[in-house]
């Protein structure tokens, strides 16, 4: 449900950690039928996962766990950010947001934060867990051996199967946003988010705003055309008779389009000039103030901190004016720092990371709306990222060994340099392999395209039919 089934993953199993030693069902304390059916003591069922972007697929699985017995106390474990990012990857929601989402699910009796990645007998005893509920697909554990996370629980007879909900998962939701990246950026820009909030360049923002204007213009043209056809049919006239009037109106629409486009270009040009001048003024002012007050100029990180988003005035129009007018409106309080638009913003801002995340989970570039070249670039980046993590891990091990031996880490420098040669060689080999794969793939695509073209031309010459354009 919340983890990645081993048979759906690409790129191997999770790394780090160990699976507890397996005891037999005879060695584990048995749950009597009397205790399961008794109304005095509820059966304690445990379900765990990540529960990022909590959706109805998660809720249905928890509902199944809650209804396993007539009297069930459902405990739900949720892994924290540190362990999740290490073994699974980047999440959209923070650990506190994921915990809070679970607390508001009606099937959940208790949320256990900082849940372990692999269950142990000690954890089961501590929380007095009778059964563990999850779907039956094998989930790769944290040992790197590709074992099932729930192998230990299944072996001691404490596993209860739940069914997955098809066509919905956190990765699927992320995929939908990534596939329609431009549309969601335009959506959030219209809701008052800034380009910095969304990680969008200045030029990209202006292009999208122009597109928003053109889209609205097309909608108006379509609406106007539909009205003309409706009026013509109502009057019992042929819509073609209205063609002359439509042409007359079309002139005004074209003029409006050109005016809108010219206005957008002018706004863009003016904005670019204003930004350059404003940047020069700020730089001069900061340097002057810094020299007078002997205060440092703001860091780049401080410069890039996004300001609070401005709410679009159009979105402030009250949808409940009529309800308020008749005295049937009751106010509820909003929860700060969390909204659908905020979650979408986080995905858009780290677009490349989430594309890489979903590629690693077996999604294709077409699923994500990514070009062929972009996909290859990201896969190379994924390889380099993994290599950096290995180098960092190796370096930390050297420092740990040096401290344990009471030696100065600098004394290990020579050994580190020797090992570094191997890492560099591994990097170059990985990079060369990636370039070779890309080159081969490009050649294959060109040859395949040429074969198809030749085949079409041959068929057309035999059948004396023109090749389709």
Automatic annotation (TrEMBL):
Q: Sorted alphabetically, which keywords does the UniProt record give?
A: Lipid biosynthesis, Lipid metabolism, Nucleotidyltransferase, Phospholipid biosynthesis, Phospholipid metabolism, Transferase
Every copy of the Cytidyltransferase-like domain together lies at: 46-175
Primary enzyme class: transferase
Q: Which reaction does it catalyse?
A: phosphocholine + CTP + H(+) = CDP-choline + diphosphate
Q: GO terms for molecular function, please?
A: choline-phosphate cytidylyltransferase activity; phosphatidylcholine binding
Region Disordered: which residues? 15-36
Domain of life the protein comes from: Eukaryota
What role does it play? Answer: Plays an important role in the biosynthesis of the phospholipid phosphatidylcholine. Catalyzes the formation of CDP-choline.
PANTHER family, from UniProt?
Answer: CHOLINE-PHOSPHATE CYTIDYLYLTRANSFERASE (PTHR10739:SF13), CYTIDYLYLTRANSFERASE (PTHR10739)
NCBIfam families, from UniProt? Answer: cyt_tran_rel (TIGR00125)
Its recorded name reads choline-phosphate cytidylyltransferase
